Amino acid sequence: MSLLSFDDLYAAADRAAARIPVVAAGGADRTVLEALSEAHRRGWVSPIVTGIESEIRTVAEAAAVDLAPFRIVPGADPALTAVAEVTAGRAALLMKGQIATPSLMKAVLSRETGLRTSHVIGQVVMMEIPRDNRRFLLADTGITIQPTFDQKLDLLRGMVEVAQGLWRADAGPAIPKVAVMSATEKATEAMPDTLEAAELQRRNAAGEIAGCVVEGPLSFDLAYASDAGEKKRLSGSVVGAADALLFPNLLAANLTVKAMMYAADCRFGGVLIGTTHPVVFMSRADTAATRLNSLAFTLRWLSQH
Length: 305
Known about the structure:
Blueprint: H1 6-16, E1 20-25, H2 30-41, E2 45-51, H3 53-63, E3 71-74, H4 78-87, E4 93-96, H5 101-108, E5 122-129, E6 134-139, H6 149-165, E7 177-181, H7 192-205, E8 213-218, H8 220-224, H9 226-232, E9 244-246, H10 250-263, E10 267-273, E11 279-280, H11 288-303
Parallel strand pairs: 1-2, 1-4, 2-3, 4-11, 6-9, 7-8, 7-9
Antiparallel strand pairs: 5-6, 5-10, 10-11
Helix pairs in contact: 1-11, 2-11, 4-5
């Protein structure tokens, strides 16, 4: 496989022991406090949490989490308070805690005080399936509902940059293989996303999208399993070997990634791209282990920039 495993990412964060200041928006959550506590124990982070202090302390006491290493920043709006810690330079990255995505994104997207850039913001999830020794990225699984062609192009380039930062030193040149996903491998006017996928492949072949190999449209089976290509008599360097999957819209991406999270034996973690600072971004329903995965993933992303 071309991408580092989560074990590799944990080992890298352990070696760095950099104590990166990270602020969690909405700290009154057991899994948030447990993940940050473990990350501090391993030397990864200096934890900061925002929210109502009494609620945070109550949750910490119930979870037997020692808050001594934590800095608590009280505030009625945990998202705005957390973003302010980042923009003021007191935190290097933001973590989504016990807070709804719309509330967090309102603070992140604020033109005056947020973390906006000229790039489209999207969630990149790293998925690892040990059974098949497969690791790959998926985007956009959490933010942009119906990306335009230009937004897909921006997301593709951002995901390629993430993949290159996760590239194994022994895997040869960092040229990620990107599958542009659809329900079929044939371009048809009845499914406009397939035409956009074909156009992304054409631009890549013409040298307009550098540093990667792009093929599409591809169905999930073709992107994931080499025997699917053999059965369908389709070939290509991305078939059965995709390092990154770019989805046509949020519906397809989110349903796919959550189905895998709950139905497959896998490990996963997520980060937002397109922001001024990295954002550790997963669901409020995730476990402490998944939050720790996301931290390791994001710390690697931060170290490459």
